[in-house]
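Feature request disguised as a bug report, sorry. It would help if multi-protein outputs had a clear separator. Right now it looks like this:
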Amino acid sequence: MSENSGRFVRLGLPGIVLAAGVLLAGCSLRTMAMKNVSGVFDSAMEAYTTESDPELVRESLPATLMMIKALVVNSPDNAGLLTTAASAYTLYAHAFVMEEADRVGATDVDRARTLRSRGKALYLRARDYGLQGLESKYPGFRTGLNDAPDRTLQQTTTGDVPLLYWTAAAWASALSVNAQDYALLADLPVIRKMIHRALDLDEAWGEGRLHEFMISFEAGGAGGAGGSLEQAEQHFQRALELNHGHSAGTYVTAAEALAVKTQDKGRFQSLLKKALAIDADRYPDMRLANVLAQQRARWLLNHLDAYFY
């Protein structure tokens, strides 16, 4: 699932450190700062998504994750902050931990297993932050998802789409790490309902990010878990319409989800080359996502034999 992943306002790492200093300076200052902390971190996270150097993000993001965790302890009902937490942990797990697991899988099985276990734990933490955010807005939300998911999700509004997306994306990603985790597998209908609720509320949100999610979600379930390759294809085309073909991740997702599923090597290569043809600097708010997707595309093109028989 391409992460993907997020558009935030620009504020560099010094801004994060400064915000942390204010929050930890004293009780009264902390109270004032917490009122705006989610906005600060939305702004701070944008510095990452506009970055062109993935290694810089890889090295600095863990410190930001720990800072977000500390802030959540101080403001456990701040839905905006919890949305940022869910997105940041999902981004880190997907773009760095799970990507490394794929790359070392053929040469270091033990290392890959450790990384996948870590990635799954990070995805579940992101999911829990998302659920905590929804619970803060709708008391009883988590229990309601088990007892009456349709009625519970019906409460949500357009403003909840980011929380619904990040929660569902993290949840589904955790399941994708190990499809034999039967406890998570039992949650699949709830994940599906959650992402469909987001689509019903605002299907164009994030310039097609919901539809990009559905490409792999539908293709992954095709042939046994309620998915459909035909619907996955429709989501692919709709994602392209909404992002105007500017997202490398959309092409990479389609290559892995659709071309591999149908064993169409020619389409696989064509889609990845389209991803590589995008000028990442032309779309600053998508720069990191495009650079990461293009790295993935190059790696996939160099490992064709692992995907086609």
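(second protein starts here, but nothing in the output says so)
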Amino acid sequence: MNNIPEKKIERLSLYRRRLMSESGSRSYIFSHELAGLTNSNAAQVRRDLMMIGYEGTPKKGYKVELLIKYIGVFLDPVEKQNVVIVGAGNLGHALLTFFKNRQPKLCLVAAFDIDPVKIGKDIGGTICHDLADLPRIIKEKNVKIGVISSTENAAAEIADIMINAGIKSIINFTCFPLSAPKGVFIEQIDITASFEKAAFFSKE
């Protein structure tokens, strides 16, 4: 599974979200229609869906509800996976609120910060703990996914703590690029770069 390109996983996730939004209004969908909904092309859609073992029919296309299930079987973990977020500032607070009940197979079990005002508080339905408790809680709750929304100068240290405690995937929302040993996945989400890129292409 680990040799599957990240872009293919991103497309499958997008297909499912768009299919779920369409499921109430249609029973079947053709590859070119799904491509139109996801800014892809029909050939790419067919290749992606063949990879997960589901092929449509020339007359009706793909059965929407069944295709959603096939994508879920391929993408989702068999058992629920626990997630922690480090950094409960403005971005962290927004992520905590957004995350709640968003994905049934992912369970946000704890948030962490160094600010004594935040520690012990319920933020978006999740208790915020002292950062010093991060390794213990990762191990106790068998957490495999960590989210970093701290200041960028703390990102590398937090990532090291996560990895040493058993984290296998990290989503990094700071501008500091992280590196990781083999077997640990890093998803870098640079919001600042995205805004600067948008600003560049909006120049007249």
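Even a blank line would do. Unrelated, but nice: Residues 81-195 form a domain with the Rossmann fold fold (CATH 3.40.50.720).
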